[in-house]
Structure of TetR family transcriptional regulator:
Amino acid sequence: MNSPQENIPPQPRTKPAEVRLDELMDAAERLFITKGFEATTVSEIVRDAGVAKGTFYHYFPSKNEVLAALRERFTRQFIDRVQLAMDACPADDAIARLHAWCKSCVAAYLDSMAVHDALYHDHHYHTRGNQDRDAVLDQVLALLNEGVALGAWQLDQPRLTAMLMYHGMHGAVDNLVIDEDTSHTDLGAQLAQQFLRLLGRG
């Protein structure tokens, strides 16, 4: 008769690939925040993650690919958080969903400001087009088009309006860091009010 210990399945000696990948990305993110992208080396990343350098190069050809992966993860988490807030509103209430977009965008950016700045402001990124920004713009555009379909507002240039809202929100959050007279809750409501005026509902 086998003992209880003999019936316990053996533990894997290595971590699953997705866990190892997350650990590498988390280590890189920590170092990019504390040291900056340019100053961080691959050797420091693998030492922080506790893996061999060969493991790093199995997933990423260079630091640039880690940065791209971290940006993609940041954008996905940001969009998911904002979408969750909008989906908590009635599907036929475009104005409530716009308020939710404004408030959740402000909160999400402020909660992850250090990560955001390390991934974007610390490395040349403000080009004429990039996938991460376009993904957020697409979410705003979908919100605006939903409002048009519901009769909440009318738009001749929905994508241009989405760009104004995205960049306006982003600039306002950046300014909030140095503006001691405005809370993030106030800013979300103020943005919603201004954007509704832009949409002819103010």
Remarks:
- Residues 63-87 form the longest helix (25 residues).
- Residues 13-60 form a domain with the Arc Repressor Mutant, subunit A fold (CATH 1.10.10.60).
- The chain has a mean pLDDT of 89.
- The CA atoms of residues 119 and 125 lie 9 Å apart.
